[in-house]
Known about the structure:
By secondary structure, this protein is of the alpha/beta class.
Amino acid sequence: MTSALLPAARDILARLIAFDTTSRNSNLDLIAWVEDYLTGHGVASTRVVNADASKANLYASVGPAIEGGIILSGHSDVVPVDGQDWLSDPWTVTERNGLLHGRGTCDMKGFIALALAAVPLFKDGAKPVHLAFSYDEEIGCLGAPAMIEEMAAKLPKPALAIIGEPTMMKVITGHKGITVHEVEVLGHEAHSSLTHLGLSANMVAIELMHDLAELARSLWENADPASPFIPPHATLTIGKMQGGTAPNILARRAHFVFDLRCPPDIEPEVVLAPFKAKVAALDGELRRAFPEAGVTITRLSNAPPMAPAGSQEAADFVRSLTGDNGPSDVVSYAAEAGQFQQVGFATVICGPGSIEQAHQPNEYLAVEQFERGADFMVRLAQALA
């Protein structure tokens, strides 16, 4: 049965990869293709769109409308290929030496293709399979919450959710959360020789970034040695910064973006409270010097962690399908799994491929992993029959 599923899955993967769903773009062409595919198999689907209807989540139920079904979830967006050295067209699946190259083959259109290819198997099951495909996961897990909320309200309660991030088909029961903030500093321009007449936004931003660097060091130094995560501590990094217009002008504007990734037992707002208090105090100080100056901090995203608690039965079920006899593990990257868990779904992460290949030039999914993913879908269909 697996051998029959694989050709369809390969064809679907090629079609999904051909859609450039980099997060800055719309994903609607891919969503429309998936809708048509599901309609061709007699399966209705539902869109959950963003504010301007330029992007959409999609969910669908395959099989009877009863409780106890399984959610198979993946994100449709991918990271950019800009500046990366690709040996082949990133929007075409190219097989070399048993590896399927293409942007998103691993993260995570491979899993989506396998789930769609298995729809004919799921249709006759005694329990349903709920497909859930999101947008904007790569920029902070922004799209999924509205879909998850609607699924929780409208679907017969599923038994568990499987998020198909690449794990080499190992069962993952915990991940860190992520919160992303942007800090903007407005100063007052003046000639750089007359520092008493102006205020450099860059200099203020540097001070604040230094504070965050010290906070990151403190998190590292106070890591819980018993933590299962690698690295064990909450991590904080500044991923983007920009400021100023010329070397001899006191910068009018500077901004930077940082992310904080916390294990389930660490609350990000508690970690950031002293920094946010300093930002507030500094904002008042700058405004007193120049009315147009100031500092603001804006939270861009806040995806919760997934905790292992409560997922043992779900993990055991998924391991029975994959043949994974090892203990459950945790990962340090963020995912939508915590969002599914947050609304009460028992949740695990399990999918083909290695996270080490995600976001890389010449990203690939090994054919062997694709085949193991196909085996998993067949066994899931058999378990729900």
